[in-house]
Amino acid sequence: MSQTIEIFTDGACRGNPGPGGWGALLRSGNHEKELYGGEADTTNNRMEMTAVIEALKALKKTSNVSLTTDSQYVRQGILEWMPGWKKKNWMTAARKPVKNKELWIQIDELAARHNIEWHWVKGHSGHAENERVDDLANKGIDEFLAGKSQSGAKSGTT
Q: Which residues are known to be catalytic?
């Protein structure tokens, strides 16, 4: 059985909506990869979701994944709400369109390629990897605001 890839994700926003950033850390054994990016006018939830999307896109083959997020929105969306949304053609229980539908669909499609265990950690609680991806998300905002992007979105790896 292949080794489990650990993924840690976070999103940040200055204002909600406002300029936002996302960060992800992927770890397989002793190898690590950091990803981050920023956008001009977004929400914290969208950045949390983008971090998950970009991390899963970075996986080159079907993998066992342990994904840790500090977003209950993302974790509950995947584990609890999405099955009902899909049955109701992406409508909520209140018969309103699901917010961020296009991102949920991307997460659903990417997650289907892997065996993922979803974990939640309280944000800003001293969890080392969560603090690290929070720093990456803020780096994404800082670099975006510093004009390192021409297209409206910036992403990088370190």
A: 10-11, 48, 70, 124, 134
